[in-house]
Amino acid sequence: MDYRFYGWETAGIRDERGLTPRDYYDLLSGIWCADTCAPRMRQDWTPENKTLGQCSVTAFLLQDIYGGKVYGVPLGDGSFHCFNAVGSCVFDLTSEQFEGRKLDYENCPEQERAVHFAKAEKKARYELLKERLFSRLSAND
Questions:
Q1: pTM attached to this predicted model
Q2: Which entry of 14, 60, 93, 124 is 20 to 30 Å from 33 by CA?
Q3: Is there a contact between 86 and 45 (Cβ–Cβ < 8 Å)?
């Protein structure tokens, strides 16, 4: 597979199943959908731009798996684009949605799960993504 997400080259950490972030990208590529996309972006979501609007739910789900922290790149409109940092391994499974726009992953503020999940719709999208991912993992076991 030709990976294009930020940090794919060094995303070699493994979870208890032996899976890397690249493996999770492969799994999530078949799971991300309009229902897991942020509502304000849903009309622009397509299978060709599958990572659009999936950043926070994906980053917090990967935090559940690997630990580490979730940080946010300020986008200049008051919103943040979430990504993961686990020790020295930094990766952003949903960076492709920016189609070549270079994001600055340095000195970004940590994102708090409680703040993001205060929105019931975001918590519901996270739960849906989590349920679909773990169902897929169970089917592969």
A1: 0.94
A2: 14
A3: no
Q: Mention every residue, 6+ apart, whose C-beta is less than 8 A from residue 66.
A: 13, 15, 21, 84, 86
| Amino acid identity at 18 | G
8-24 burial, b for 16+ CB within 10 Å, e for fewer? beebebeeeeebbbbeb
Q: Is 62 helix (H, G, I), strand (E, B) or coil?
A: helix
Give me the tens of pLDDT residue by residue for the chain, a chain 141 residues long.
Answer: 689 899 999 999 999 999 999 999 999 999 999 999 999 999 999 999 999 999 999 999 999 999 999 999 998 888 899 999 999 999 999 999 998 778 899 999 999 999 999 999 999 999 999 999 999 999 876
Its sign, for the CA torsion 73, 51, 128, 140, is negative
